[in-house]
Amino acid sequence: MKTEGTVLLFIAGFFALVAVIYWMWGGEQSGTAMLAGTALLGLLPGSYYFWWSRHMKPRPEDNPQARRADGAGVVGAFPSSSIWPFTLGVAAASVGLSLVFGFWTAIVGFVIAAMAVLGVIRESRRGGVV
Amino acid sequence: MTTLAARPEAIVGPPEEEHGPSGFLKWITSTDHKVIGKSYTITAFIFFLIAGCMAIVIRTQLASPDNHIVSQHVYNELFTMHGSVMMYLFAGPFAFGGLANFIVPLQIGAPDMAFPRLNAFSYWLYLGGGTIMLLGFVTTSGAADFGWVAYAPLSNSINTPGAGPDMWIIALVLTGFSAIFTGVNICATVFYLRAPGMTMFRMPIFTWNMLVTAILILIAFPVLTSALVMLWCDRHLGTHIFTVSGGGVPVLWQNLFWFFGHPEVYILALPYFGAVTDILAVFSRKPVFGYKGMVFATIAIASLSTSVWAHHMFTTGTVLLPFFSIMSYLIAVPTGIKFFNWIGTMWRGSITFNTPMLFAVGFLVVFLFGGVTGIFLASPPVDFAMHDTFFVVAHFHEVLFGTVVFGGFSALTYWYPKYTGRMLNETLGKISFWLMFIGFWVTFMPQYLLGEEGMPRRIAEYLPHGNWTVLNRISTAGAYLLFLSVFVMLINFVEAWRRPVPAGDNPWDAHTLEWATSSPPPHHNFYWIPPIRSERPVWDHNHPDHTTLPAPLAPEPALAATVATGDEGRDQ
User: Which residue among B111, B198, B218 places its CB closest to the CB of A75?
Assistant: First the structure.
């Protein structure tokens, strides 16, 4: 976890430095804002990972000498099939098209999206079957 | 249904059975990263063929002066959609949607991507967005025709009214969110689902590059998406963010767009850099030369690429020329390190020139030329002379065709056995490569000369002037050769489908973890994982006498079968 945090913190440091140089050299606002935003994007997760890396139990994937047995067992719960991502994709496309063709496709899109969100929640709680 | 994925400890079996629908229903419901990866790959390849056909029409139009195969308006639509489909719908999704989805979990020993349903949702956003973009052609005003960069004020509602441009904007918002979600998924997968012993500095270079690409996506795409929302507001809600008349700043669009656009070039390139690195090592039968140097060079390229956006805007007169010029030149340093290491990887290796290796070496040559002409263009005086000429078109295509098509075909032919369990035909693959390699130079070298002679890009017709006619004809002939090479590759895919030649688990005697599982891999990927003691675990296992490990592998006890299908487990 330490390497992950370091990579992200490097991004924060690099873009903070570039933002300062860019601002002091040229004084251009939009570029400075985007560079500063990028530095924050690295800083937020980077500092979290770095902090967490110092407080967590060492993970087998960070240990070069780890044996396969160290990480054996359940890794996580994975849905093997679900109709709801497709449904949500149709809903997103319908809502997007409403910005071109009028509000009526958004109504259809929001109804489908609500169904999809409810479906995902039910599936996550009870183990959904297609 | 939800299943629990367990990580195997040693040789166990049989592999997990997949319970679920098949056929069309499997396509629309699967959350398996392999199915989604294949869907992305096939969809992106279809978009590649569509955009390639547009390129053929464009080149045919330019084959003769004052040609009228298509009208000027249609020509504008064609070059806009050719660029948009290639950039947004083929090159990126083929890499971070197709290859990364399929390969990254396998390379780190993970059972799936971290968020499988989000992964599937990303694909449907991408397919929906891509379809909406192409449907612009059937609207009364036609598809978007303001170039793939949509510069303001050309892209406002006065200069380019109609539904087609709006559909282009919506399509990019949808595919942008798809890319962002995929970026989050790749980061989470790499950070949290690695197998024991798979430390960050043992990950294959492809996975490292995909991680850096995912971070670049998270930096760049939100800027594009927000810029598109602003553009839509300018077009429909009466805001004046990019229009002078209401106090807006048109060049702000260029700043926002290129803050996305230049990292986008590396979002497209870095995955293929990674694939080619692994492929060169496998076909040279050597480890990657300078592994950590490659990782740091990738991070350096990504960082610098986000600090050079305004080198696309030198001629606007509003940018800090020395800053952007210096930063652009600096990218040559980590890229040079990569070239040095690629050559070092091949140096004194036992090289075999199979199809993936040929495309990888082709990538090296083509990308080198594209990179060198990029150094020319990083110099403001040269850029002032060459801006908006065919020189830039040639440079751009050498960089992107070199990485995305040569690198992409290298990756596709390399991992095709893992995708399908079948081998591609070597002869057809080599014919395809040579047609492409020759066709590439015939197409794009004349365009450098056209640029030097001052031919502007994005014009549908031209008068006979200097060598323009002959150079354009040569370039068009090359484009037909490229078309033929892709056609031969398609025949190769069809042949592999009709007359399958079984590939086995590891036909290339490759090094990395995806080759430890069956071809195609079972549900949840692995029923056996070798000990991971270097960045080449499969090589270490298969060639214990030829490893680079400092000490012999400590034997691990054989362990009982532990793979759980999950159906009997916690059902939530």
Answer: B111
Q: Which residues of chain A have pLDDT under 70?
A: 80, 126-130
Q: Tens digit of pLDDT for each residue in B393-420?
A: 999 999 999 899 999 999 999 999 999 9
Smallest CA–CA distance, residue A104 to chain B, in Å, is: 16
- Lookup: tokens for B134: 């192409």
The predicted-structure confidence for B435-470, as pLDDT tens digits, reads as follows 999 999 999 999 999 999 999 999 999 998 889 999
B127/B44 Cα distance (integer angstroms): 9
pLDDT of residue B8: 59
A79 and B2 within 8 Å at the Cβ level: the answer is yes
* Domain extent at residue B380: 23-546
Residues of chain B with pLDDT under 50: 1, 10-15, 552, 554-555, 557-572
**CATH assignment at residue B309:** 1.20.210.10
Is residue B282, in this structure, part of any structural domain at all? yes
Q: What is the DSSP code (8-state) at residue A74?
A: E
| Smallest CA–CA distance from B531 into chain A, residue | A68
Q: Can you give the pLDDT at residue A130?
A: 35
Give every CB contact of residue B313 below 8 A, 6+ residues apart in sequence.
Answer: B251, B254, B255, B258, B319
**Nearest Cα residue in chain A from B177:** A92
Q: In chain A, which residue ranges form alpha helices assigned H by DSSP?
A: 2-26, 29-55, 84-101, 104-126
Q: Which of B132, B252, B571 sits opposite A97 (nearest CB)?
A: B132
Domain count, chain A: 2
Residue B452 one-letter amino acid:
E
In 10 A of CB B172, how many CB atoms? 26
Instruction: Compare all CA atoms of chain B with the CA of A98 and give the residue at the minimum distance.
Output: B170
How many domains in chain B? Answer: 1
Residue B198 to residue A63, Cβ atoms within 8 A:
no
What's the complex ipTM? 0.93
- The answer to whether the pTM exceeds 0.90 is yes
> Residue type for B490, please?
L
Query: Which of A11, A14, A89 faces B121 most closely, judged by CB atoms?
Result: A89
Q: B7 to chain A: which residues are within 8 Å by CB?
A: 68, 71-73, 75
Query: Do the Cβ atoms of A52 and A1 come closer than 8 Å?
Result: yes
Across the interface, of A7, A18, A89, the residue whose CB is closest to B307 is A18
Is A68 within a domain? Answer: no
Chain B environment of A130 (Cβ under 8 Å): 20-21, 25, 29
Contact state of A89 with B123 under an 8 Å Cβ cutoff: yes
User: Which positions in chain A touch B562 (Cβ < 8 Å)?
Assistant: 72-73
A114: containing domain: 84-126
Provide φ and ψ at B522, rounded to 5°: -75, 175
3-state secondary structure B466-529: CCHHHHHHHHHHHHHHHHHHHHHHHHHHHHHHHCCCECCCCCCCCCCHHHHCCCCCCCCCCCCC
B570 in any annotated domain:
no
B-chain residues within 8 Å CB-CB of A100? 163, 166-167, 170
